[in-house]
Amino acid sequence: MAVSYPQIVLFGDSLFQGAASLEDGFCFQAAVQQQVLRRFDIVNRGLSGYNTSNALKLLPQIFSPPGPGVPKLAYLFVLLGANDAALPQPVNNQHVPLDKYKQNLVSIITHSNITAHNPKIFLITPPPLDELKASEVEPGVRKHRVSASYSEAVRQVAAEHSVGLIDLYKAVMDYAISKTPGFDRSKGNLGDPETGERGHLKNLLPDGLHLSSEAYKLLYEAVKPHLGKEWEGTDAAQRVGYVLPDWKVAPWLEEDVLKP
């Protein structure tokens, strides 16, 4: 049987589906893969439009329990909630009530198909919503403060269940404010109709909802420190964690297979 690489799975909605984009020359998924090359495979299971109820229903079709030929799930990053936070609609409704959203997140991270692998799990908060722009794209569908409450719910679930937290909301908002000269944060947040100012958020969330390459860089910087603890501080020359051995120490050298 061919060797399998342990996996880092990106499980979420369009925010993870878009993580494979090469917009402006940066790709979040490729950046993560480069960091863990030869040690882990990055698997993108970003599903545009999905909410937590959709994701939970299809989870058994996405994650298999451990078994012959099943790669180990080593890391799981979950980024869901942007669609759950959409306001209730008469058709094409994506809304999931906040309490149900929290229950769904718990059901995802405690699902037996996942826990059987004993992965390192990280919940990622949905980013801020630029309601000023989003209301132009989809009027009456999303609200800044409603979206923020779903990000807070992720923080609560991560703390209550002792899993990792990537606070993308905070990373994006803090950075946007730092790049918006003169903005008074005491009055509220960027993208909120109460402040009436988009500031640098317009560069991070071009349509008010989805991440630009600049925003994906912020996500990568937040994820990066959590990967590679397995070989941190070791001699890089040992290639610690490689699934297949470095060519200098591979068994074929003893057999003189590759010697001229």
UniProtKB/TrEMBL annotation:
Pfam families found in the cross-reference section: Lipase_GDSL_2
Span of domain SGNH hydrolase-type esterase: 10-218
Protein name (database record): SGNH hydrolase-type esterase domain-containing protein
InterPro entries registered for this protein in UniProt: Iah1-like, SGNH_hydro, SGNH_hydro_sf
Top-level taxon in the UniProt lineage: Eukaryota
